[in-house]
Amino acid sequence: METIEFTSAERPELLSLARRTMQLMAPVLLPGDVHRMHAALRAHAAALHRDRFGLHPVLRHLNTALLLAERLSPDRNMVAALMLYDYVRAGALQRDIVAQEWGNDVAHMVDGLLNVASLYSRHATVETDNFRKLLLTFADDIRVIILMIVDRLALMQAINHHPDEESVRQVAAEASYLYAPLAHRLGLYSIKGELEDLAFKYSNREMFTRIARKLNQTKDHREKYIADFIEPVRRRLEAEGLNFEIKGRTKSISSIWNKMKKQKNDIDDIYDLFAIRIILDVPPEHEKSQCWLVYSIVTDMYRPNPARMKDWISIPKSNGYESLHITVYGPEERWVEVQIRTRRMDLVAEKGLAAHWRYKGIKSEGGLDAWMNNVRDILEAGADGPLELMKNMRMDVYDKEVFVFTPKGDLYKLPMGATLLDFAFSIHSSVGTHCNGGRVNGKNQRLTYRLRSGDTVEIFTSQAQTPKPDWLNIAVTSKARNKIRVALKEIAGKRAELGKETLQRRFKNRKIDIDDALLSRTIAKMGYKNVTDFYTDIAEQKLDVNSVTDAYTALDKPADDTALNHVSASEFVMQDPMADSEHNSQDNDILVIGNNIKGINYRMARCCNPIFGDDVFGFVSSEGVIKIHRCDCPNAENIRRNYPYRLIRTRWSGKTGTQFAATLRILGHDDLGIVTNLTSIINKEKNATLRSISIDSNDGLFQGFVVVGVNDTSMLNQLIKKLKTVKGVKDVQRSK
Fold this sequence. Notes:
five-stranded mixed sheet; about 725 residues; elongated; alpha+beta
């Protein structure tokens, strides 16, 4: 393998970068550091490779080290880890040698950088919450995250106008989604702003250039404008004797673009291209009055836009944010946003309830927000080397979750303690159901293996594998446990069907007719609470079929009320209903047909089952029998339209005493004893009889059709009211 040579253009850059970096790092370097680093470069240069953009790794890391020293603080260990980890990654330098020559702290950060590099090698989708969380977990040390952020800035500065536009856009997307928000949370505002601007530039260069040209002024020019705006305001505030700090800022190009998208306006319609912040040092009791005093001073000097005035002092935001925002028309016909707040309000806005990233619309993550706030406080507190204070800080904010990969690089999040079986069910129910093991990081593992972040997991399946009850002790996720329960229930159902068929064959062989009510009594007497367990035990030969037939034949009588107390709706089978009889008007004068015609056969129509009290009409059928229909019969309209000549006027004579069949449709929960309660109410009615009952149960609910014999509609309505009071019954309706 050939040594990477520096090009003629790179050599001067190398010398310049090395000189500037050493100057900044001099206060923190130990004797011999430069010599050891130079020796490592000479000895292991052959192991290094240019990256996909053709950048020399030494130059890239020197650029990162320089940015780190300039933007944050010179840190010897961080720079050493940054320069050495590529050698360790390539296998040219052993980790133990790094620890021996540079210290355990440097070796620890090298481990973190190697972990992150391995994460990227999985080809996982970066723009996912799971990737970001796994990144923080893998980094382990917050300084590794800082190195990654600064390194990403160095990379983005180096790839402007690179011909591989697709790779450049990918890097820009990662910076926008991942690194810029992390930089903001860490208080690295200048790095965050530059990352966002470069990401916007590389992803939408045309719009970036347009906005830059539209602004048509340099940074110095804009800062001069802000200074000119501030100066007269400062003089007026000082004349009022106020204690304050006033500072100005210009929005970045990416921030302006976000405003344009959010407001759906062109840049000419964006009001707050410039922003001024006035921070007052006042006691709490004078906060509101002095903020409004400043408001009156500013609006006296510059014309305000009332539509853009936001008063979050009188009524703070729900997240605690307090400030007074106004937009005024400043010099050169520009709109400028002015924010007025006190020192306390500013502290809350920046570090408290309304942290700056939340104000900007970046989603909160609970524990991560609080943790990052503490990190930012440390960054701001240690003026003489804040990164030194972070050596012992570990990224344990996601210590309740694990993140694992599929062989294809797909990333999954599971709770801490999840097993290989949980992972199988997280992929798909059928994968979990037929899982019989797996391979984790190239090694075969059992279902009980506890997953760790970064594991690459491959699941083994077999169609012969089925869930077992002890799987419920292995799985920890609710999804897996629920799927296992469903699968076990399905298996039990299939076994119950097999047991039922076995029992039916035995009864048939012994020429025994099965009475469902009697069988229900038998099942209850044998100590079973539901038929599924009964039939399952028969299928698994835990219950002898002969003992069941003997117990069945020993019972002489059908099921009584006591036995029915152990029967649910799903176990109750339809009885044979009584057939409706044909009537003769000479034998029964409850109906007046036509002009009281005698000797005519009639029949109550089955489609609507009329009873005494219903509005009815007669229809002469092709059989010569008059069928009595209810006037609201589903077939009434069709009969009247097509056969008006076959209709015959019919009414009740006023004499009752005959029972009529009425069908009731009942809906409810399938509870034990529901059939008993229904039949008990019907049987207690003096002039009502139960003719048949048919129950269909599914998923804990039942629908039943009950045929009752009643004398008239008033009696039927009273019965319906009583049936509705039964516990578990949802609705009772007369069926047409």
